[in-house]
Amino acid sequence: MSVSSRPRGRGGTSLPSANLAIRQYFHDGPRNTPLAEWQRKTELPKVNEIMGTDHPGEEFNLATNKIHGPWPSAEVYLRTHYNLLREDAVANLRDAVAVVRERPGVTDSRSFVIYERVFFTHITMAHRGMAFRVCFSTRRAGKRILWRYSPRLISGNIVALSPATDMFSSICVIAVVAARPLEGVSKNPPEVDLFFAHAENMDFDPLKEWVMVESRSGYYEAHRHTMTALQKLSREGFPLSRHICGLETETGVPEYIASEPAMDFQAFAQGDSQQKLPCNVITELSKAPLEHLNIYQRSAMEHMLSKELAIVQGPPGTGKTFVSVTVLRLLLAQMNQGDPPIIVATHTNHALDQLLTLIAEFEPNYIRLGGRSRNFRVSSRTLFAIKENRPHISLQNGILSQARQRHAALVTDIIENTLKGFHRQIGDKSGSAFVHRGLLTQEQLKNLEEGSNQWVTSSMEGPIDPFIAWLGDQAVRFEDFCSDKQTSSKIDECHQDYEMLMELEAEQAPDADDWECLWGKTFDFRTSFPVLVRSFKHVPTVVIEKYLKFRDLWEIPREHRGAVYNELHRRLVKTIRDELREKLKLYMFNSKALQIGKLECDETILKTAKLIGMTTTGLSKYRGLVSALNPRLVMIEEAAEAIEAPVAVACFESLQHLILVGDHKQLQGRCAVHDLEGSPYYLDVSMFERLVQNDFPFVMLKEQRRMVPEIRRLLNPIYDDLQDHESVAKFEPVPGMGDVRSFFCTHNWPEVDDSLTSKVNEIEALMVFEFYCYLCSNGVPSRKITILTFYNGQRKKILKMLMDNENTRCHDPTVITVDSYQGEENDIIILSLVRSSDYLSAGIGFLAVDNRVCVALSRARRGLYIFGNARHLNAKSELWRQVTSIMKVGERGESRIGYGIPVTCQHGKVIAMEYIDIFKTPGSLTQTSFAPSHASTHNLAAANSAQAHSNLLGLPAPPNSRASTEEPEARLLIDLSDDDRLADPDLAGMTKNIAENDAPTTATRTSSNVSSSRTPGNTRADKKQLDNESKIRWNIFERESAEVSDSALNSLPRKAQKPLATKVHLMDASEEEMQSSKVAVLKPNVKRNPEIKEQTGSTPQPPGTVSTKHLLD
Asked: Which domains are delineated in the chain?
């Protein structure tokens, strides 16, 4: 009787077998057919790719993405996308290196940053590989870096290094950021860990100074995985290539559905019935209990189940995710034991968390791969969290255990037998490393130490380091030379908004269990070299050889000692590098085995799940692991937002069914190199869009449930057949806005550039701020308001205004860029367009991209209020011309575009808010002053008396008289006090300075016009100081027309006037009605002095004055 030798686990259970498919996926051994040049390229770019140009922007021959018609072959398709991705990954760094080579003294620019005084300090023997830690200086930034909110040097970024003496003239080394823990970059000098392609060849001399260059934009980490996956896909079978590359439109039923088309719809039945409801999804889906779907959603569901390559377009609010979840619920209910998991992917981590949250409502057995989830419910289902709660996994034929043993042995060997002589242990003598390697004799070291004892003074706690004493003023302590103290009060601004930065960090993180740090033993080079020599006199090698034979090194001339020390140091580093070279090769080879062994263990967990979620980047990053699961179905949400290659690599050899859900008329994919977007390369075009544009069969959802009809109609130029569900007509109106669901407040205030590449419109930001305040004062919860803008500079400007004001700060306002808001919605959207110029030749930037405009116009449910220069947009964009044409005529004939926004008080009276120029002929307007209440967090101003408000903020009491000829008018003052800043990425370190004692401003209103002026000697306010020197005045006036006629819209004056005051008219109201109405006053009149002077000719205040108890009630 034979005895089984099968390995057994605890309790006698058999060990599961390792899936050898993972090992085979990463096998790089000999192949039957030779590989093409692009298939052999390494992950990290070669030096010639970065150094191959002498001039930034030099042109290269590059095949273009074929977006019309079929591809010649799958190989051409894959090769072209690989080369385009590679160019997008390295071009910006290549151009940056070329600039530094031409101008070595250049400082940080908008496109790249330079770190100087870069020194190797540590080596970390992590499981992921051998990492080298460097310290560096950010002096060339000229600003302090807020590392927590900075995209600099985040994990996965690519950098180029060159010796400080070379500056990329001939030497360039490429590295990837391995980890950037905050405690590292917060040091002085900051530190970061790097991976090099060939660690064994790296010159890690700790006394050698380098410079390091990093591009501000780049998607290398994401592209790196996708490029590797494209290479793998080119050597595998490419399912669905006849559709994806050949554009064959006849698509069959997925094989696994065709074999079992009858599915149980019991999960969708009404009531608690447990009876099965079988239905053939190919021929009888119309009979299924899907009453919760409209006809378009049913059609989409049928298309998704019956086509091996299914495309569903979902315009805003049509429920595309709802349909996707319905299909997933049906398919998950049919799964049997042993079926491979369904793979779902989204473009962003945020969207993935939202999708998995919906799936979790009916299916708990799912796993999230990659990144770091910020959703509490989903985070418990990440692979890392699940592994934390499971015992150690042992596998039959697994390589993880052996790789770990080899790792421990290699680390011991490297440290004890190679680096030990490099390392000066506690208690060792300085210079012992030189003696250990035979570079100095024990007698030479003893004489050196005896000579240094003469340097001891009574003020010293102990003897000075002998080499410091010996070198004298040629020696510089390592920490002193590398110090990175920044004296500038300026802050290096983040060019991305915070949500996008968090998304980038989540995508580029190595793994959830290795997020911020590298785990492993660390060796500090600097302990062997307490000093470095910055400059020294050149000494011939033969002379140095002679000096090194001196028994007493003190006999060497002082001016030659620096050269001798550096030669000793060079020889020591060379000796250790030679010893390490082969050991590091073995170490790196074993690190790869560790990663494969880890994936083999992960596979045993993942194959038990029914559904696995990841981002489109994860499809590439974890392709070897997911491929081993043999998935049949991959569903990709937000498919039109991803460039083509990450979707193509989802075509695993086992794939039978690919579902793409998205909307190519919303946001597209983005490229690091803008020249690769659009013609002629079209790298930003998604597979979704390309197939749709080539008449590949797809289904479009046409009934929306998000927007009220008045907002939805703005999308008519984009979607000509979008219909409204009956429920949207029943949405409640916006408080304080009457029946005005949408409005375009046009102005001529010009934009400016911020310190980076973004745009800012300061007065428009002030308009948005005030309108937000008005809505909140009318009872709109701040959580139901989102302020959107196309530019991050404007986002920061508006957010600062809101955070600087103690009344709005507590509301936790949401200000975000359009690019970060796809897939989101809110009741009210305030949209700041920013772009406005006096010159018709000026462009409109992001506003010219129809996809971005589509997203911006489709986020609001109940109210959309736009601020911008309508005339400028009309001249530059056909889409905006159509949108403004629609807004000229409301649903009942009234205009929805004008110089001021019509708002409605709670008594139903319509008020027109209008911006006016305060720099005209002075008049005799008298003002009544009020101040907001700080006692309420919901009302920005509500008080019982003007005097009470004035006392609250220390403002002057309201004047007790006014000219008898004046019409009723009230003015509210808000003091933007200097409050503590919150810990916000865009507010930290910012200062605020409000001028208190400048000249006052007066404004005058006559019967039919409003004019204003400054007192003699005052000119127009300096635009640059408007942010810091502001007192806000709000005016109320009798109704005048605030609408812009068709002809007026096209003839707005080109010369921008500073709209620093606001005219608020009560429409069609008598004086008595004005007195009894609750009036909302909104817009700012920027003054430089809180003092308000009374006008001459005082008379008792007339009865038309607005009562403060109604103000902003």
From this structure: 47-234 (no CATH), 709-1110 (3.40.50.300)
